Amino acid sequence: MKTEILNRLLLDQKAKRQVALLTHLETGAQSLVYPDETHGDLAVDAALQTVTLDAFRDDRSHIQATPNGDVFIQVFNPSLRMVVVGAVHIAQPLARMAAMAGWDVTIVDPRGSFASSDRFPGVHLINEWPDEALTELDLDRRTAVVTLTHDPKIDDPALQVAIRSDAFYIGSLGSRKTHAARLKRLKDAHFTDDEMARIHGPVGLSLGAVSPSEIAVSILAQVIQNLHQKEADEAA
User: Fold this and answer.
1) What phi and psi, each to the nearest 5 degrees, are found at residue 140?
2) How many CB atoms lie within 10 A of CB 9?
3) 68-110: per-residue pLDDT in tens?
4) In this predicted model, what pLDDT tens digit does every residue of 23-51 receive, in sequence order?
5) Which residue would you say has higher pLDDT here, 234 or 137?
């Protein structure tokens, strides 16, 4: 690998930029392919560009046969992240399930007695107020945010940061009545209807879920559904 390609790839990963490294298996020619540009000495035609965009969506590296020889498409997608605001009972099975599905999970709750390593072993915990924590986390297009506390002092500041971030999914736990009150508070804080429409509330697919684990399943299912729908829309 050329030094220029390696250095650029390292910078892309640090910046959480979606990129694929394409390598011609016979000649060794390489190019970095982004959703909207290409950089390198391997010629990338429209067909190979389309295949690479599909690889981004599938999050899968593979060898692609082309008229000019085989090309290895190595995908470097930023990690999928789930930021859960509120270390409540539902957050426990949700954190475990999301981690099993390959997500980097962070629990944010200023209440240290809730967000403890005893209750969430092996999970990244942040005991700060959500507006500060979420700003520091730099929510990107591979991040889902879920608020679970029902407490406006904790959920609302998180939602205000998430709405104006690049997070692809925002969900908030609560009944329709609770969500209506939440939207009124956000409107009073000068958020627009389009901005508030980003929030999935009540959070989760309508599965008739009752227990914390069932609700966690419904939330994770909706997050995954939205992830793949977003990727499909971008590829269209």
Assistant:
1) -120, -170
2) 20
3) 999 999 999 888 999 999 999 999 999 999 999 999 999 999 9
4) 999 999 999 999 889 999 999 999 999 99
5) 137
- 93 in the same domain as 30: no
Domain boundary among 58, 76, 94: 76
Number of residues written out for the chain: 236
One domain, residues 33 and 139: no
Domain span at residue 36 reads 3-76
How does DSSP classify residue 10? H
Burial letters 202-232, b for 16+ CB under 10 A, else e = bbbbeeebeebeebbbbbbebbbebbeeebe
190 and 120, same structural domain?
Answer: yes
Residues 99 and 34 in one domain: no
The total of other beta-carbon atoms located within 10 Å of residue 148's CB is: 28
pTM: 0.79
Would the pLDDT of 230 be above 80?
Answer: no
Of the candidates 175, 155, 171, the residue with the CA atom closest to the CA atom of residue 108: 155
Domain shared by 28 and 138, yes or no: no
**What would the two tokens of residue 127 be?**
């005991």
- Last residue within a domain, chosen from 20, 44, 76: 76
Amino acid sitting at position 236: A
Counting the structural domains of the chain, the total is: 2
